[in-house]
Amino acid sequence: MGITRTNWDTTTNKEVFKTLVRKWFDSTDREALVEYPNLFKTLTTNDDYERHGRYAGLDYPGELDEGENIPIQSPKFNDTKDYTQTAFGSGFRVTDRMKRYNKISAVEKFTKSLKRMQLEGKDVQGALIWNNLAATTYTNTFDTLAVATNSHTCLDSTPTTYDNYGDAALAVASLENALQYFDYMYDDQGNIFTARPDTLVVNYTLRQDAEELLKSSGKPWEQSNTINPYKDELKPFVYHRLTAATTWCVLAKNHPNYGAFVYTSLAPDLKVKDAPDTTRDTLITSLQYFDFDVDDSRLIYVGDG
Fold first, then answer.
1. In angstroms, rounded to a whole number, what is the distance separating the alpha carbons of residues 124 and 118?
2. If you write DSSP's letter for every residue of 83-134 in order, what string do you get?
3. What is the bridge-based pairing of β-strands 282-294 and 247-251?
4. What is the pLDDT of residues 247-293, one digit of tens each?
5. Which residues does residue 161 pair with via DSSP β-bridges, in sequence order?
6. How many CB atoms lie within 10 A of CB 217?
7. Where do the structural domains in the chain lie, given as residue ranges?
8. What's the pTM value of the predicted model, to 2 decimals?
9. Is cis: bond before 256, omega within 30 of 0?
10. What is the CATH architecture assignment of 36-47+83-300?
11. Which of 119, 125, 129 lies closest to 267 in space, CA to CA?
């Protein structure tokens, strides 16, 4: 934890006291960039960890001969995922002299900065998952695979697999493949079901492409009388923490089984107390507890090309 002193600018003599400095410019004094609620289901908890369990319900009924016993099925139970609360904190120390004589309301400004960085720090942690979707670096799903994989496994005896990883740039054909994926999905018994996607997530460099794909009246990037069947089908979301220019995702975030979660047991707080010594300095600290993870990713389609 650093100490905020009156001589924080070491190239001058107690620059913070100077009355000749009329205005201080701080580019970090801005609105916090917090986007994770657009990608995760946000839940609160009072426990150290939350556990999600995976199971498959009953399969289709079979035809019976006269007098034949009705077969008794058993649901399939399998993997679990734990969301363990992790602490994230920061703070600063202000000298008594700085509090008494500073000209720029440093304590108030740095306290505001601390609040902002705690909010953005949570957003940065969530972004680690979305910038590593094809790796298990920061998360792995129920089947221990990465979020984006071409062979996720179901719980049936075959087992059935599904592919939610499209190796293609964002275009008409690749978006069509993504929407077809949601039209023909497999549940954990290997049976077909459908889901309605609602969000197209893109890097900021793909903003124009996303707008043209989803808002053009005619089929994008061609001269024809063909209507655009994807007009207003999805809501475009420019994710500013998505670092790869070629990555895009289609989500069914409003589906009840959407699997990206953040559990929070403590939102960023603020504690102000005297330093534990005889300096009369003040300590300002902030702490929060949360955890991001993805349990099942079949309602997340990832494109990259």
1. 10
2. EE-EEEEEEEEE-HHHHHH-SS-HHHHHHHHHHHHHHHHHHHHHHHHHT-TT
3. unpaired
4. 999 999 999 999 999 999 999 999 999 999 999 999 999 999 999 99
5. 153
6. 8
7. 36-47+83-300
8. 0.88
9. no
10. Alpha-Beta Complex (3.90)
11. 119
